[in-house]
Every structure is written in structure tokens, then in C-alpha cells.
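re: ur question from yesterday

yeah so i grabbed the chain u mentioned. its 306 aa long if i counted rite. heres the sequnce exactly as i have it in my notes:
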Amino acid sequence: MSIYVIGHKIPDSDSVCSPIALAYLKSKLGEDTVAAVQGDLNPETAFILEKFGVAAPEVKTSFAGESVYLVDHSDLAQSPDDLGDAKVLGIVDHHKLGDVTTSEPLECWIRPVGCTGTIVKEMFDASGVEVPKDIAGLLLCAILSDTVIFKSPTCTPADKKAVEALAAIAGVDDVVALGVEMFNVKSAVAGTPIRDLVKRDYKDFNMGGKKVGVGQLEVVDLAIFDDIKADLLKDINELKAEGDRHSVLLLLTDIMKEGSELLIASDDTAIIEKAFNGQSADCKMWLDGVLSRKKQVVPNLEKVFA
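ran it thru and got these C-alpha cells back, copy pasting raw so excuse formatting
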């Protein structure tokens, strides 16, 4: 029986590319592993897989009775709903340690770096396994995506070192140009249903016993949202009501201006304002310099909800 390597719900590029790479590595080390995803690919990830000629993993949401490696997450809210009936063999992640627990010892690679792809590259190095060209391309793109082409405060020297090595293997001469190409794909919103945009890169969190959803859309120009911002705000209010959530927040991130406009749907807007020491107007708030949900948004919210 195969062991599944899975990223979080509503997969982004890191949670697809890193499981593919880790499944390859584990297979080379003698484990029968296969990558899977918990949902459909977003446009950026589909672009990356096509660019490097890699097939999309199987979409699978139930893992009862299976053995799994968790990648790019360790929170139950982002794991399969039946994870309690599966055996977790390991966690590879770059976020805070979540609430997944196990009954047996497990392999853990958790590092404060900008991308899980950086950790997977370190695992290849530690195991003495060469990274093939296509896998190198996937890991390279995952790091460029998660670090916002090195602009995110989560980016570390380890991420830049990994990019340099992976680019050489993948035959990519200009990593910044590749990153911009990826973000141009990510910026394409025309014709996409509003709910698909809201949940393109979305995660639910348990904060002080309250369910809080945080989504993020990263683009090269916030003007892209001018005609649909009201619709996005309406939809996050609907999503909040549907899931019995205390709050749903949507970050509209401008990677060129290096900041985010926060759209707010909340039972208590004041607590959101307190988290960011700011004032909202019409359920919107500009967060200067905020690019990272993981480092600049979720920790602030957890402090005020604690």
C-alpha cells in the first residue's frame, strides 16, 4: 500500500510542488510513496507543473487507514477531515507547530524558512540524493512563490541558497524573471468566479476557540481588483456565515508596492483593528509592508484572540 505525501487543504504551489518532490525523494530511499493533493490546482501551480512537464498529483480527500506524510502544514483545520484515522509518519513544514498529534514517534523537519521547498531541498542534500531537473524546477518555483520573489520577511539566506542551487539544476538563468512570470499568471482574475478567488489561497485557523479564515491574493497591481472588490467583500461575509466563523479576512497583496489591503468580515471588527494597530474604513484596512500571512498576519491575530 502506498504512503501518501499531502499538502494542506486548498493547495498553493508549495503544498503541491513540495509533496511531489518529497514523494520522489522517499521513493528513492525505498519507500512506496505517492503525492496527492486535497483540492484543485490554482492557476500558478498549474503553470509551474506544465512548465516543467510534471503531471498533477491525484486529488484525494480521505485518508482513513492510510499512512501519510504531512507537508506545509501541521494544523488539523488544514489536514484531511479523517486524519485521526490515518497514521502520520512525518511532518515537513515551515509554519508554526500546529495541533496535529500522534501516538507514535515521527519524522519531523520543521524550519523557520520561507518555503517548505527549501526544507525538502535540504532533505535531498542530507540523504545524498540528486535532485532531478524537473523536481528542481518545481522546488525553485515553490520558493519564489512563497517568498514573493525574496520580498517576503519570511525569506532567509537558506531560501536564497536553495534557489541558486535549484536554478542551476533546472537550467533557469533568470529566477526573478521566472518569478514575475508566475505572479503575472497569479494576477489573472478576469472571468474567475468570486468564490474561487476568495478560496484560491485560503486557510481556516482555530484562534482561542474561534474559527478564523484568512485568504490571500497576490498580484502585481491592486487595480486589478477595482471592479470586483465589493463582490469580494460580499463573498467573504457569506463565507463567514456559511462556516460559523468569527471572522473571514482577505489580503489583497500588491507585490510591487509591498503592502496589502485587508478586507474584513468579522463579528468584532475592533479586535481585527487591534491586531494590526490600525483603523478600518468600510471594512477595509491598508497594511503597509505586509506580504506574509504566516509571519505578519496570523501571529498578530492569534495574540488578540488568545
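noticed a couple things. Residues 14-28 form the longest helix (15 residues). also The mean pLDDT is 96.
anyway ttyl
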